Task: structure prediction
Amino acid sequence: MPLILATSFAELKDIFLMQGFAGFSLFAVFLLMALGLAIIFGQMKVINMAHGEFLTVGAYVTVFLSHMVVNHAPKLLPYYFPAAIVCAFVVAFILGYIVEIGLVKYLYNRPLDTLLATWGLSMILQQACRSLFGAREDTATLPEWMMGSWSPSEGLDIPINGMFLLALAIVMVLLVYALMYRSRWGLKVRATMQNRAMAGAVGINTKRVDRVTFALGCGLAGIAGAAFTTIGSVSPSAGSLYIVDTFIVVVFGGAASLLGTVLSAFTIAQSQSILEFFLTGVLAKIFVLVGVIILLMIRPQGLIASKVRR
Amino acid sequence: MHTLYNRALGGRSGTVGLALLCVLLFLIFPLALDNFRLNMMSKYLSYAFVAIGLVLCWGNGGILSLGQGLFWGFGGYCMAAFLKLEAARNIAAESGSDQIRALTTVGLPDFMDWNQITSLPYIWYPFKSFSLTILLVFVVPTLLAYIIGTAMFRRRVGGVYFALITQALCWIMEISFVTRQGWTGGINGITDLRTCLGWDIRTKSAQIILYFLTCGLLIGCILIGRFILSSKLGRILVAMRDGEDRVRFSGYSVSKLKTFIFCVAAAMSALGGALFALNVGFMSPKLVTIEPSIYMVIFCAVGGRNSLIGAVYGAILVSYGKTYFSEMFPNLWYFLMGGVFILVTRFFPDGLAGAVDYLGPMLGRKLFSWIGRAQANFPAAVVPIPVEANEGR
Result:
């Protein structure tokens, strides 16, 4: 009897570890998505409902590249993924730049209107993806080293793509942190977002800062899209499935705080994946959302509030 | 009498606008459209209720709710639950034969049967009575709006955050309705609604009567909205939209005001949802989730977020455009719709109503200057025309 108890206890521990690790993959996806939005929504106050579509665009770039590599240069297959990430970033960045110039620029003083306009944009981008790539789901061919799993002990399987995702997310957070808080350019961005008139007065080209910041946020969504291809298949509406989650993550974290975004992505992803083990997936989702909404009522400024006087 | 004229009808220009809408709804549409299209029109008009509610709480109160589908849906589901129970009772009575009685549980909606539910859930009990259902159509969504409103506005959650939270609530409603299949009909929703108090709602005459009922209630909602907006409360609402802190510092309770207008909008939406269930004969979670809720905001934005009458035109135009273009050009439709979203917010923030206000006088001036020039060329016709023209203006 004690033996049975002991084995089942060990199994339970493994299940918890694996479930916890599934939470880490979800955490990485949330974090990558939320990083771009934390800049666009948190700093610039633009409610970009098309953020998910930038993810889709990044994912399609990756899928397209992988098909190219498979068809024309199969030898490069193990190495193409880093290039795909860069390409996804560049394409999403350029698209974001165009969107800023053509649309978002005119709406900075009307935040709620950005919501409607970018929703329209997301419909257009989704349909464009559907016309270009077809409505069917598509998958990227992953390099060999990214597939399979790593099992440190028996009964414990940790997927490698999950670990890759997590590593990528951590690297991106560090990069964004360095860019926003430790570089000259980040200083300009924060100055512009805090007080546009004063920033302009000290000689910062605020319009240029706007353009590049928005495009950067979109580019980050593109990277999230490239990462997304390692865990799921891509369809034109893939990004829009995550948009509500992403907004909740950013709002819950405290819109203008990078650390808050990380913490809230972690909390939401972990509680969801651990609850999923006890309840069904949908119920876990409902519980987490209701919990977040109640917490937001108690603390409307989010987990970590920026102490900036408005 | 005079105050009523000024307040509920909105003075001369308001009366003219309302009269035009009435002529369109009560005369032109019933005469010009065939029965199928008229039924479609009642469907569009049931969305107009939400748009009117949004004019009150978004256009004038500054509260953007992306969760109006929630209230619309609760209203619709309450009505659909009543109709479904009646349909189930009728089927049980009609069947007569013992075979069917043995196969199904008598008086239980069919989807419950399919989900192995053997007795009516307690939540469904109130929907056995018609008067209680009508009461619940208004009470459930209003109470929900009151709870959400008090909880949010007391904590000064507003603007963007409120919009995103209501959107999440909408999503929660959709996924919980989809999963509780036995209680709500799951993803298919509540379908196959036939009679209301023994009156077959699928017949031609019933659909026409329901159309006129919808129009009448819609005009009623517009009048109520006018009445609220022209009262002192309406003035404070607009003040609150433009400078919340100043209103708070003047001693008004901002959270109560916001909750009130949010509840009014919710009740109107619920009425629209109930009428939708009557007009169209089904209710499903796909109609109440995030996307339709954003469409509802778009109806309001296209019509003009400050104009009660504009909201009706917005709902009709956008819904009609949606039906027409998705039938004719299914691929182009999303581009067109997305383009409309972008164009309206970018160039016409006041929507159709704003365009009419802006273009109307300009066209008028053009017309008159043209008449003036015509007179200059033909001096004989000088005298009588300008007088008439000025009166016509």
Observations:
- The mean pLDDT of chain A is 86.
- Chain A touches chain B through 41 residues (CB under 8 Å).
